Amino acid sequence: MRPVDIIHKKRNGGINTKEEIEFMVNGYVDGSIPDYQISAWLMAIYFNGMNKEERYYLTMTMRNSGDIIDLSGIEGIKIDKHSTGGVGDKTTLAVGPLVASAGLKVSKLSGRGLGHTGGTIDKLESIPGFKTAISKDEFFKIANEVGMVVAGQTGNIAPADKKLYALRDVTDTVDEISLISASIMSKKLAVNSDGIVLDVKTGSGAFMKNLDDAVALAKSMVEIAELNNRKIVAVVTNMDQPLGEMVGNSLEVWEAIETLKGNGPEDFTELCLELAASMIDLAGIYEYKEARKILEENIKNGKALEIMRKWIKAQGGDERVVDNPEEILPISKNIVEFKAEKSGYVSHIDAEKVGIASMVLGAGRKKKEDEIDYSVGIKVMKKLGAKVEKGDTIALLYVSDKSNVEESLELMKEAYEITDNPPTEHKMKLIYEKISGGK
């Protein structure tokens, strides 16, 4: 088998076999195939795509290049949740306790943030004392006793994906549906859960800016999971504005706590209920409509909040944060207002720029090595469709001495568009489509 023949086949629109895909990926990982040949193959895939079998073989080859995480030490059915990333996307913090309150154990391996999207681990580590580096035994113990556990990704999960992604990044072959779906699913399938609920974001703050592309990505990932006999539901959701109101680590933890008290923003609460009910339905504990009722009741009766309290305590965090988040969390007291320069309606928000505005305040990382400031971030006061008068406060910037306030304010100016007419209802829709296995 020669790399040039496999490249030639794909370049001419042919279909690579399982053996050919394994040969290329494994050869790149072990160094027997040079990066210039893999680059040519990736470019051929970029222009010609892959069919669903090819995508599955690519996914599984990358998955099998590293560790497979065995969750058999956790009792009951395991349903994973994954978001493709967005601005203010703190759903795990609220969805986990919600789902656990209805009897489904949640065990997640999460990552840190880079660029304009925040990482769940960074958010949790803003809680004083909270440990995300825990042993396998602790992980299983907390999951079984509390029903909820989140730890940092450890071990050697899908190393082939990391190597291929680095090459895709420098050869401009990142944004291709087959390659994106295989990359995401290689890591998801490396964790032996019984099912997966995917939150596929689309819009200005998402990786997939276009709705059709997001739906195509969701369908591709559903097909891959089905070929692996894994239960799956993909929900395509709006990221044309930040999710909820808070963007930034401590601020997002605060908002998740308030949501479990019944005081969360409407869009964030709705998405949490949608994802949580989908997870419970997929697990077969309750059907979707019944699950929604139970989850709404568990917010009202405080059951979900109590799970959050126990979870935070179990992972070493200061449980008082649940009762008094504003005082326990490191939240800056130095606030700068971003105000409307004209009257009208908020007709467009570039959510990615809002995310970058939070990052330059210190809430995110430009490089992996950068330290983040848990205390800073942005509270969005006016969202899509809001009527504003000149001088109204659109957002609050929580800043520190190291924050680049001028650059952040400039980015916010660029992010917001105020016009005489409000945006269409479609632009403000929260959930666009729900794709289940076999559909």
Automatic annotation (TrEMBL):
Matches recorded under InterPro entries: Glycosyl_Trfase_fam3 (IPR000312), Glycosyl_Trfase_fam3_N_dom (IPR017459), Glycosyl_Trfase_fam3_N_dom_sf (IPR036320), Nuc_phospho_transferase (IPR035902), PYNP-like_C_sf (IPR036566), PYNP_C (IPR013102), Pyrmidine_PPas_bac/euk (IPR018090), Pyrmidine_PPase_CS (IPR017872)
SMART domains per UniProt: PYNP_C (SM00941)
UniProt keyword list: Glycosyltransferase, Transferase
Entry GO MF terms: 1,4-alpha-oligoglucan phosphorylase activity; thymidine phosphorylase activity
Pfam families according to UniProt: Glycos_trans_3N, Glycos_transf_3, PYNP_C
GO biological process: pyrimidine nucleobase metabolic process; pyrimidine nucleoside metabolic process
Gene Ontology, cellular component aspect: cytosol
Gene3D superfamilies listed in its UniProt record: Nucleoside phosphorylase/phosphoribosyltransferase catalytic domain, Pyrimidine nucleoside phosphorylase-like, C-terminal domain, Transferase, Pyrimidine Nucleoside Phosphorylase, Chain C
Ranges for domain Pyrimidine nucleoside phosphorylase C-terminal: 345-419
PROSITE patterns in the cross-refs: THYMID_PHOSPHORYLASE
Subunit structure: Homodimer.
Similarity remark: Belongs to the thymidine/pyrimidine-nucleoside phosphorylase family.
Protein name per its UniProtKB record: Pyrimidine-nucleoside phosphorylase
Organism: Marinitoga piezophila (strain DSM 14283 / JCM 11233 / KA3)
